[in-house]
Amino acid sequence: MTKQDYLELLVKNIHSTTVATIGADGHPQTRVIDMMLYDKQGVYFLTARGKAFYTQLMAQGYIALSATREKVSISLRGKIKNIGREKLDEIFEKNTYMQSIYPGDTRSALEVFCLYEADGEYFDISVPAHIVRDSFTIGKATQEAPGYYVGESCIGCKLCYSVCPQKCIDITKKPVVIDQHHCLHCGRCAEACPKQTIEKRV
Ligand code: SF4
Ligand code: SF4
Description:
Blueprint: H1 3-14, E1 16-22, E2 28-34, E3 37-39, E4 42-48, H2 52-60, E5 62-69, E6 72-84, H3 88-94, H4 98-101, E7 110-124, E8 132-138, E9 147-150, H5 159-163, E10 169-170, E11 177-178, H6 188-192, E12 198-201
Antiparallel strand pairs: 1-2, 1-5, 3-4, 4-7, 5-6, 6-7, 7-8, 9-12, 10-11
């Protein structure tokens, strides 16, 4: 799937997400926020100027969000910017329930934010014995995919495969190769490796 496919899934299929910021007491805070639109620039959501969430967005310029439906989840973390009333009317046209929450001109209390530079993760456990994960970015050229990677000093002993819950290691090669799209990031392979040649990248 492409980045646009993941954003479509997030905005149209899942829609309601849990968004984290840092509260005034210095601790994480979450709340449920609907993702209203997406395009090549990023993902758009809104909030009212009177909310503590708005104050935190303006001060921090950064969010983390996660959303899930039917064992499929998307997470994003990255930079946001306030675009004022730009796209506000389009958001109300495409998300008509907003017209009942903020009828008439009361929508003037709202401002729109764009998540424009972010690391994203897709995770699908709908078939539990064969999980699927992927990474994507918004507004960035490349992303170092996090995960576990086998080094050159692998001796092909297959111990890693024997402890892997997903059996997602190709042991026909040496060094063996971890299939990043099916790895849980549990770390059991790295703990078992007698050569300590499985590197964790974060
Ligand atoms: S991190 Fe876990 S799931 Fe991934 S290859 Fe290692 S043992 Fe398998
Ligand atoms: S346990 Fe380590 S040395 Fe053995 S096959 Fe796996 S990566 Fe290679």
